[in-house]
Write a structure and sequence with these properties.
This protein has 146 residues and is of the alpha+beta class. Helices cover 30% and strands 37% of the residues.
């Protein structure tokens, strides 16, 4: 199991190492990157992420347990950035290793969707002018990037 909130850049290579193991033929890794979206105040140059660390880590651990139970995941990576992430930077990595490919894909899809919908992580747009804008909430409880 590997769940984390990190102020440092996330590494796809490290995620793949965490997911390595004998008899794990299905390995799927998703990386959510910051896009250069436009807002009414101009282009986004970064996103600032905030979290309630204790609640977020508890929820990430619960999601990891659920992926093991529902999909037979043997290894799981659930990492999310906190602090400022520039355009092009990786904000979230979700990875799953299972004996076969179909459950690995299904578990990864489940985990990123559930993370976005239930983990207390909030983002704020940072524009070129330095102005901040917290985006309006999406329909439902989605709070995270990806």
């Amino acid at each position: 199991m590997s769940v984390a909130l990190s102020a440092r850049p996330l590494s796809m290579a490290r995620a793949l190492r965490e997911l390595d193991g004998d008899r794990l033929g299905g390995v799927v890794v998703f990386a959510g990157r910051v896009r250069p979206d436009r807002t009414e105040s101009g282009p986004v140059v970064a996103l600032d992420y905030e979290a309630d660390p204790a609640l977020a880590l508890d929820r990430l651990r619960a999601l990891e347990r659920e992926a093991r139970r529902r999909f037979g995941a043997r290894r799981v990576v659930l990492w999310h950035r906190v602090g400022r992430v520039p355009v092009g930077g990786v904000a979230v990595i979700v990875g799953v290793a299972t004996p076969h490919r179909a459950p690995a894909f299904a578990a990864t899809q489940y985990l990123i969707d559930a993370l976005k919908a239930t983990v207390p992580i909030w983002k704020t747009d940072r524009g070129r002018s330095g102005r901040r804008r917290r985006p309006p909430p999406a329909p439902g409880p989605s709070r995270s990037a990806g």
